[in-house]
Write a structure and sequence with these properties.
Length: 241
Amino acid sequence: MNWHDRYVQQAGWTRDLRNYLFNQAGLKEAQRVLEVGCGTGAILSDLTFPAAPHGLDLDAGALVDARRHAPGAILVRGDALALPYADFIFDITYCHFLLLWVRDPLQAAREMARVTRPQGFVLALAEPDHTARVDKPDSLAQLGKWQTESLRAQGADVSLGARLAQTFDRAGIEIVETGAIRQGHEAAIGGQEQEWAVITADLRGRVAEGEIHKMKLLDIEARARGERVLHVPTYFALGRV
Ligand SMILES: C[S@@+](CC[C@H](N)C(=O)[O-])C[C@H]1O[C@@H](n2cnc3c(N)ncnc32)[C@H](O)[C@@H]1O
């Protein structure tokens, strides 16, 4: 599984929304911008402003990749729950598919607010609610359940997206705008091989290979008939400190 390819695919799903929200947050005028949980740099490498954004991640291996993909970024290994930065130093602090993975999302949101200057912006660009996932036709519903269980077993807070605005509110971040990402045609239909690489990695050791293969055939057939729906409601929140 090439995680950078996966992150680039996910970054594609949120590109239009990201451009809109970064514009609302005044990215072009921002001097200091931080991505918390930057992974391999899929989002950092797509930023045009500022010239040297900051990125932080817990995973040293991901940061090695990020150094390659976003050579202009200033990268630090650290924990979202205790950010190694002084108070009030960033104009914009954002994350993308992060909060569902942290042990205490409220503490992470509080930390993002702490390092952001007064009147600066905190932005959670994409947090899913897997408990509301829709799979059609119904014969593929079990696939969604397996995958959600696997994410839960990997430590994800699978319904965090549904509580994102509430988490900002409890962290003292004033919501400017929140909503759900509109998944485009390409998110639902495109990248099937990539999607199946993720599903196979998620389900390996949990579900018999024959069962996974059966689901894959049902998925391919449903797509060929134009009947496949795979929808995971995914939320964003733009807030002001
Ligand atoms: C799904 S990846 C998303 C990476 C990147 N934001 C993107 O969208 O391409 C989640 C990232 O969060 C990082 N992460 C998880 N818990 C963290 C924590 N407590 N502090 C910092 N990073 C964390 C992981 O190491 C991983 O790189």
